[in-house]
Design a protein that fits this description.
Number of helices: 6
Helix content: 40-55%
Structural class: alpha/beta
Radius of gyration: 16 Å
Shape: globular
Strand order of the largest sheet: 2-1-3-4-5
Distance between the termini: 44 Å
């Protein structure tokens, strides 16, 4: 079982190398341009993808590797009062879109993470971000789902296994953070 999981991870990593390097490079440019222009990065996801959103936001506001100033990385998954109030008043499908409406401005970057590419709350947040003239980046898996047609760039991890998709999402998240670190001397 252990060797099978490691081999599956390695195979998925090779597929990402073979098929997604150009898309990851585009995503690095998106996040770097956002930070260089003084805008912020907002992130959201559900479950494990929420943890990934929080992880990436923490790497930006804290630091990744390089000692640098704190950067505006905001996970929309952490405010339990906002999440539960919005879910109660508007429905769970709006917990992220309402926060995007509250915090995002034109030029900001919204990163939505969904292994299926079909999480309605994430799709709604993409729609709101687009209306606000934000850049939109998706991290998905399987066939990319509805995110394919709704965000500026959707990086679709070529796997149907949630664990492998999430492993690649955090790897891609770390690469994005490295590209931001590279902006600083």
């Amino acid at each position: 079982m252990i060797l099978e999981a490691l081999q599956d991870h390695q195979n998925t990593t090779q597929l990402v190398i073979d098929k997604l390097t150009g898309s990851i490079e585009q995503a690095c440019k998106m996040i770097s341009d956002t930070i260089k222009s003084g805008n912020k990065v907002l992130l959201a996801g559900n479950g494990g993808s929420a943890a990934d959103a929080q992880h990436i936001a923490a790497e930006l506001s804290g630091r990744f590797v390089k000692e640098r100033r704190a950067l505006p990385g905001i996970a929309l998954t952490v405010d339990t009062s906002a999440l539960t109030a919005i879910a109660n008043d508007y429905g769970y499908d709006h917990v992220f879109s309402r926060q995007v409406e509250a915090f995002a401005h034109g030029g900001d970057l919204f990163i939505g993470i969904s292994t299926s590419g079909n999480s309605q709350g994430i799709l709604n947040a993409f729609e709101t971000a687009t209306k606000l003239n934000c850049k939109t980046l998706g991290l998905s898996g399987r066939d990319g789902g509805k995110m394919n047609g709704i965000c500026d760039l959707n990086i679709v991890v070529p796997s149907n296994v949630t664990a492998r998709i999430q492993e690649m999402h955090i790897l891609i998240g770390h690469i994005l953070c490295q590209s931001v670190d590279n902006l600083f001397e």
